[in-house]
Amino acid sequence: MKKIFNLFTFLAAILLATACSPEVDDLFDKSSSQRISEAINNTKDILTTPADGWVMHYYGSPMYGGYNVLCKFDKNDRVTVASEVAGKDSTFTSHYKIEQSQGVILSFDEYNDIFHYFSDPHNPDKNGVDGKGMLGDLEFRVMKASADSIILKGKKHNNRVVMVPLKKSTNWASYIDAVQKRFASMKYNIYEVVIKGKSYRALRSHHTISFTNPDSQDETRLNFVVTAKGIKLYKPVTIAGETFSEFIYSDDDKWVDANNKNVVLKPVVPPITEQFVSANWYFAFSNFSAYGQRFWNMIKPGAASMGENIISAGLGTELINKNKGPQFGLTFASKGGEGTYWCQYYFTYKIIGADQISIGFEGKGNGNAMYYANNAGYLPCVLPFVNNVNKKFVDRVFKLETDNLKNPTYIKFTEVDNSENTFTVTRNKVVDFFAN
């Protein structure tokens, strides 16, 4: 009993000493407002310390890739900004603020031409969906702030943005110039991602490279930001047990991950016919000759009767139904009051040579496409691409021309047996088919 009493006396003494500890008193001496004020001041000190500012790897929606944004913060709540999009000779200065809202918030709360490029719902280069843009944020939660990096999270869209300090004496114009030159060196549209000797055909669109695993039909998107050395992915990717997060440029056009030589990125320059069938290309009504426009005009009454409009249309290979995988054909979106409906008429093709292709149609499509064919008279829209002879669809043969085989921005189609039937497709999506 005496031993038990002594034990309780000993524990009580420890608890009493702990309760009187000055460190514990200090912890509770600081009010909530004091702790918030310290966090805000600490964040501002970190932001304003680097002599030449920070490089922000800015992502709106990761599906559009990341971009370099250079930022120099001053003590008077002003930030000067430059970016690879605006070019090496453009800067813009505006107001910023740091405040508390369930943690520290960094806000770019005054119009800034460079930042608003990513948040504008009507992106000037038509990146993203019109009306939504690239889904960029202007308010960020500060998840981590230290002298070597700052990690932000978009308050509205939750996209992760990383900032690292620029090395002392970094010239902004030279930095952006190096990034732009590196991006120019990789302006191929088609790549092979080689993982442990197995190749996956991949397509580049802006700052994203995507490919589909033929076994699982799963799509992998490599969203990246360009650096002076190569490209850095939004997050590490693991395929077939191999993890990779960046590719370093090589003069032999074999880009490798800095830490994993089992993964290689190689550009491919196939004939224009192969480039066409491996991607989806877009067009507007104005891209067709009068011969093709008359068929598109035939679907206008049906669209009007349903209160709908064609907002986007393309030709090539597109993934509409994951269960069926990517399909080659005519893809378009019909938009009405209740929503947007993606339609696809399945075409066949035969590559005849480096610059000729035949296109066929067997009267099939996805559910939406066949619904509009039967209820809105949309089927004539296939006739610029295939002929209708005695109520049977007959292949048309086209000759293809482009501006740049390495990085084509458009392809012009001319029917071999009917030179009046021409149309042009582009890599950039067209919004509002009939208005353009």
UniProtKB/TrEMBL annotation:
Keywords: Signal. Residues 1-19 form the signal peptide. It holds the Pfam family DUF4302. InterPro entries: DUF4302 (IPR025396). This is DUF4302 domain-containing protein. It comes from Hoylesella timonensis.
